[in-house]
Amino acid sequence: MHLTVYLSGEIHSSWREEIKQGAVVKSLDITFTSAVTDHAASDAAGDHLGQESNTFWRDHKSAKINTLRTKALIEKSDIVVVRFGDKYKQWNAAFDAGYCAALGKPYITLHAEDIIHPLKEVDGSAMAWATTTQQVVEILSYVTTE
């Protein structure tokens, strides 16, 4: 069974590559898509629409361009993996999880135990909560087995 899996969230660690490598090792038929992981490129997504002297409007434009991409990729995905790291607050990841919940799109959360409480509602709508990328790979392996 072929799946398209969108990888959402934290961009400061190698978790995406770990999941992709795990899928390769298990020969899973998965196409992975993702948010833009280059922070500077993401921040500049709307710069071609004109210079802004106020950072709010620069962020606003770029957020809308990024949202166009994110919404399209989430809607085309079969499953979404939402990673919450410990270094930064990933408001965008929480938004992506909420969007999945609103669409009825199945998602898996990936985060450490120490942030269970602040993510209780996000986890409550998830189909699974994982603490390691290997657990995510095992879930994807099970789901793709016919």
Structural description of this entry:
By secondary structure, the chain is α/β, with parallel strands linked by helices. It has a single domain (3-144), classed as Rossmann fold (3-Layer(aba) Sandwich), CATH 3.40.50.450. It is built from 6 helices and 5 strands; from the N terminus they run βαβααβαβαβα. It has a 5-stranded parallel beta sheet, sandwiched between helices. Helix 1 packs across helix 6 and helix 3 packs parallel to helix 4 (91-103). The N and C termini lie close together (7 Å).
Which characteristics define this entry?
16% strand, 146 residues, 6 helices, 5-stranded parallel beta sheet, alpha/beta
Q: What is the level 1 CATH name?
A: Alpha Beta
Regions with little confidence, pLDDT below 50 for 5+ residues: none
Tally of individual helices: 6
Q: Could you report the average pLDDT, rounded to the nearest whole number? A: 95
Query: Using DSSP, what is the number of strands?
Result: 5
Q: Which series of helices and strands comes N to C?
A: EHEHHEHEHEH
Share of residues in helices: 40-55%
Q: What's the gyration radius in Å? A: 16 Å
Number of domains: 1
Q: If strands are numbered along the chain, what order do they take across the biggest sheet?
A: 2-1-3-4-5
Summary of the model, kept short:
With 146 residues, the chain is an alpha/beta fold. The protein has helices at residues 15-25, 39-43, 55-76, 91-103, 120-125, 133-144; strands at 3-9, 30-34, 79-83, 107-110, 128-130. It is built from six helices and five strands; from the N terminus they run E-H-E-H-H-E-H-E-H-E-H.
